[in-house]
Structures are given as C-alpha cells and as structure tokens.
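User: Round two. Same drill as before: sequence, then structure, for each protein.

Assistant: Same drill it is. First protein:
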Amino acid sequence: MPDISLRRDQSLSNLDHRNTAVDFLKTFAIFGVIIIHTCGDVLTAQLFSFNWLCAVILRSLAAASVPLFFLCSGALLLDPEKELSLHKLYTKNLLRIIIALFFWAVFYKIFDLILADALTYDAVIQAVKEVLLFRHKYHLYFLQIILLVYVFLPITRVFVKHASRREWIYLIAIWGILGIVYPTVKGFWPFELLSGTPQQWMINQAYAAVGYTLLGYYLDRNPIEFRKGAGMSILGFAVVLGGTMFMTARSGTFYTGFLEGMSIGVALMAAGIFSIVKNRASWGRPYGITYLSKASFCIYLIHAAILSALREIGISPDFAPYLISVPLIAALNMALSCAVYFLLSHVPLVRKWLV
C-alpha cells in the first residue's frame, strides 16, 4: 500500500504491476505544481499586461495539478484487493506523513531564516512554535490534507468495496454539489445572500479532497471515453481562464476563486485529464516517466526551496516573456529537484521516512 500518490510506491516496485496512467498523471501534475508556484512570482504584474496574461494562462493550464494528485491517490489507495489494517495505517502510513510533514516544516523555517539572514535564538523559538501550530511553508498544506485522507481511508475503502453503481453516482453528485459547485458560486448572487446554517452545508477544501480520492478510484475503474474527457478538459480550462479574467476585470483585483482546486472548472479539468490519460495507457512505460513518478513526492517537498534559491541568485522570469521563462524556470527547478531526490533516495532512513 503506497503512502500517497506523491510517495514512492514501494509495493508496486515491479514495473509490470505499476499503474501506467497514474505515473503519467503524477509526472504531469508535479510539473504543473512547479508552474503554479513559479507563477506566484509573476502574477503580481500589472493586470492585463502581456506578461500578466501569459502568467494567467499558464496558471490556468496547471490549475488541476493538485486535484490530479488526489485522484491518483484514490486510484492507488482505495483498491479493495489490497489489505490495509488500522495498525498498519497508523504505525506506518500515517506515521510517515507526520514525520515528513514536521521534518520539512522545520527545514523550511530554518531555510527561510537563513535566506533572510535572521537566524537568531528568538527567531528559532518562534519558528518552533509556528511549526507546532501547523503554520508551515505554503505548499505543505498538501500533507496536512493527506492526514485527513488517511484518517478516512478505513471508511472510504468500505464504501468502495460494497457500493453499487447508483450509490457511487449519488455520492459523487453530493460531493460535486456541496464540495465543488457551492464553493465556486458562494460569492455570487443569490448564494451570497445566504447566512447561518446553509453556509455550513458547503464541504471545505480539506474534506472535499476525500471526495476527489473517491472520484479517482471510480474513474480509474470506469474511465470516461477520450472525446468526453477532452471536452471536459477544454470546458474546464475555459471556465477557469474565462472566469478568472472576467472577475478580475469586474473587481479590479486579481480574482483567484476559479483557480482553486475545489472549483467547477478545475474539477472538470482534473476529471477530463485523468480520463484522457486512462484512455491512452498504451502510450507505453518510459523509464523517465516512471522515475519522475517515483520522485514526485520529493520534488513536491523540495521544489519550493529551490525556487527560493533561484530567486536569491537572481534567476527570475523577467529574462523573457513569461510564456517562455516560467516553463523554463520550472523545468530547471524540476531537474534540480530530481537531482536532490537521486541523492536523498540513496540514504535508507531518508528514503523510507522523508522522501
């Protein structure tokens, strides 16, 4: 049983038993995550300038990256043919995520203090307090959500094992309405007029991720046909990009609601991309894709540090139009992150617990 879609899949080390589609999706998703965080530096450009438009397009194209990881998690973790006892869940799977989360949280606190030339005793004490209160580096929220995904595994695995097709459709519909549609439209009329208990009907982001894992398992076993998947992807991208542009123009400030993982356009993109890849599993099994899939957890953890280091030495997207520079910097980041993974994966304890 793998820890999560980002983690090395030790139980599937034999390439003949790997999920080819998941390997492709994880590789696509991890590069998308790096694109998203690289775009964070350039979306502060003047609204509707050429570079800003380039950054918004790239950010929209990558919007489904994190949801894709959750979909992959469901495809791997919810297989009822693989046993998962509570003892193993809490002493192995969950423990690995907790150790990795707090190790990297401490690492980034110290790393950022060093970059800021602010490594003092008082600053370290404050950093420790923040780590204990889950005030971690921006990208580590993913691991915090994974903890919930793991806690729900005994329940979601029971549902997967016994649910009928009608029950599957019902659950996905309820999740879609309360976890995807409602969060997207809550700020628009007439939903903005709601108050009190109806506001609490919405499934928040952390718990909605559990729904993504269930959808991932379902789509893995019941993939949408290629054309419909492509149509969903295109429609989702249009909603993400169009909604972002329209609301930004309307409000006069950069609007991020349509870029969030639990929004209508992003969910359509994620389900569509997942289905497209599932329908093209005959693409083969390139070793590079398999390696990047195995390295994706480490890449996710370390890429934020590399992005900060690149920024510190003056490598920024300003050397070319953002449509070119952002992907190039993201590719450099990914290559350096892979090099770090190569080194760390040869240290047994680090490989087992941290990457």
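Second protein:
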Amino acid sequence: MMEQCYDLLSSDEIQMVHEASLEVLQSTGLRLNHPVAMEKLSAAGAKIDVAKEQVRLPAKMIEKALETAPKTFVCAGRSPEFDVVVSPGSAAMPLVRSVAGSINHYDLITNEYRPITLQDCRDIAQLVDALENMDIAGCLVPNDVSSKVYDLYALKVMLEGGRKHIWALPKDSRNLKYQLEMMKAVAGGGEALRQRPVCSGIVCLIEPLHFPNDEIERLLLYAEYNLPVKVPLVPLFGANAPYTLAGALTHTNAEALGTLVLLQTLCPGIPTWYYMLLSEMEMAKGTANYLNPEIMLIYSGMIQLARHYGIPSCSSPFVTTDCQIHQIMFERSAALAMYALSGVSEIGGAGSVDGAIAMSPLLLVIDDEMAAYMRRIMKGFEISQERLAVEAINRVGHKGSFLEDPHTLQFLHQERRFKPTLLDWRPYETWSKDGNTIVDRARDKIKHIKATHEVPPLEEPLQRELDHILQAAEKE
C-alpha cells in the first residue's frame, strides 16, 4: 500500500493558512446564541459578546480541541463483518459512502427524473449491501411518506434492508430522538450503541461560521451515545466565501477548526471528520460548480490540512453538477485519483447526480467500479528480489517470451490483476457485435443483484419495535 501522499502545499504555506485561520477565529469567531453552548465555551476560554451572538476563540482552544478529537474510531455495521475503521489519511485506504440527502431519482437510460420513493430507499440499501466497494450507506429523502417523519421512514428501511454503517440525516432534533431509539434497538441498547455506533449523524452550519440552536441540540443528543458526527463545510466560493483560492482555503479551514472547538468543548471526545463539500459560483451564470480544477486544488489543500491536524478527512469527488455519463466519469476519475493520492480518509456522494439533488442506482454501480479501480492503484505493488525477476529475464534472454516461463506461472495467481465488472476492454471489432455501453452493463448488474442478493432480515421482535417507534413519532 502506498505510504506517501501528494502534498500540494509546502510546510510554510500550511503554516500560513493555519495562522490566518486562527486570526479569523480570534477576530470574527463563531455566531450562536445557544445558552448551554455559550456557557461552556465561555468557561473554556472563549470571549463572548452576547449582544452580537459572537464567540471568539483563542488559539489555545483550537490546540485543546485538536488534542481531544479522536484520531481513529469505528463506524459499525449492523453485522460486525461490515465494521469500518475511520482514521487520518496517508497509507489508509479511503472508505467509500453512497450519496445522502438526495430528493430525486434519475435514470441514465430513459432520462426520467422523478421524486425518490421509499421503495428506492429499500433498493439502495440492498444495492449498497451487495456492492463490494461501498462501505457506508447514506440515507435518502423519500417523497411518498409524510414530510414530518420522512427521515424516520428512510432510516427504518435502511436498517432493515442493509448491514453496513448508515449516515442518518434527521429532519430536526425532535425526530432525532426517535432515530436514536431505532439505532439503540438495532444495536442492542444504549451502551451497545455507544460501543458500536451503527449510524453516524450530522450537524450543520447554516450560514458561514453560524450554528443555529437546533443544530446544537442535535449535537448534544448525539453526544449521549458518542456517535460520530459530520459537520459539512459547504462554502460557495465567490458568494459566501472568498473568491481567491487561498482566501477560500482560509475561510473553510477556519470553519473546520471553529467547528472542532464547538464539538470538543460541548462533547469532549466525540468522533468527527474534516468534511468538505465545496462549490464555486459561476460568476457569468450565477450557478454553482462542484468539480472544476480549482475546486480539486482546494480539496487537495484541505485534505493536506486535515492530515497536518491528524483528523480524518472526507471529501465528495462523486458530486458533480452535470448529468452526462461521459463527462461525469471524466470528472470523477480525475477527482478520485487526486483526493485519494492526497490522503483522504473517506470519499462520499457515490451515485449522486445534479449536485447530489438526485441520485442514480446506475451511477452508484459505476461509481463502485471506479472506487475499485482507485483502490487497486492505492495498493501499489510489492518489490522483492524474487519479484524483480532477474533470473527469469536472463533465462528467457533474447527470445522475449515469458508465457511458459516458471516465474510467470508462479506469480500468475500470487500477483493478481484488477478484474473489471463493468469496464469493457474489447477492441472495436469484438465490441461492435453487441454495442453494450457501461450503462447497459450497470443495468444488468443491478438486475442480477436484485434477483440474487439477499440481506438477512431483522428478527421479528426487532421489526415490531421499529414499527412501534415510527408509530409513536407519527402520533406525536
């Protein structure tokens, strides 16, 4: 496995960005007015201006938060064989997560674009369970159930339909209480959930450097079970973040460090990521771009900063704004390679399309293949005296044929090659006989998974308990 990471920034540049971020947090700081949070932050050394709802953070608070944040933690599956370890980058193989929060379903073949249903959530749970390179499942947003409890329906079918760790997105803190009850039921109780978190959560900055009260309420609920929490950093460069790349990097890093202080002050030791979901405003059009060369550069710099701080990082190279498969694959392959080589801990958004507003099962299968390709590159290869093949080279000499040499036969199975399930390397003469595209092959793979892949169901008493929790939420 590769041990060296690509460093975009020099050590001096990393220090410049860090110091600039500290200056932002000392001068501007965070904006919030949650009484418990304000009290704890003040006691820890923050400078509070109640009238302005401003919390300025001295450098020592950032240092303490970096010391307190876990460097490594487990995201558990419903079954232990699906547990994954989250750790800072470098030699770590990136984890892969399917897209979360999408509200629409897109069919690459028919171009049908429609709202996501609860059945789509079930199908995705089964698909993620079957795909070898998907480690974490993201909850979607079904539109055919009550908008007041859609998040509970989504989590329920994901828990029933798959065995991998779930990134659960709650509607609000009130619904989160019911989500936690579901998690506890599946994990086997509160202490079991604390030891093996089958789900992770989310807390959001709604505006730059601003935490609304309900987001903090959610954080405090997650902390009761020490569940891993993602805080998406979602700057739109040129709009709510600086236009220059260096300025955008400083602004977003300040948000990352400020967020870390909030989490570790209110909930010491709670697991978290340096999680980035970046976009840039197209100044001539007023639209957002999620994946251009400049965004890739900033992602690489942020991943390097996360490694510098010793915090697991998460990026979203699968999130693009376009819907054309050839362009999607070009952009994603470039981003996957760059972020992986930069040392990212987790990559998310697999299966997303149209800026993650929509998702496509066909793209999820294609993204799984791209992740497999990337993982093979990250493994590198072994160099040893035997594998250098000097004797074999001298033995074959100028004949130039290694097909029947013992060295080839010896390592034919020991040094296996990447075997695609969707990529088609046939020449034109052979391929043109059927003309199947990668989308056609992805469709066939989904049909095969639906027909053959079985997920062990939850025990009936547990299913009834989940039903009771959902009914109680609907009644409230």
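The first helix runs from residue 11 to 27.

User: Perfect.
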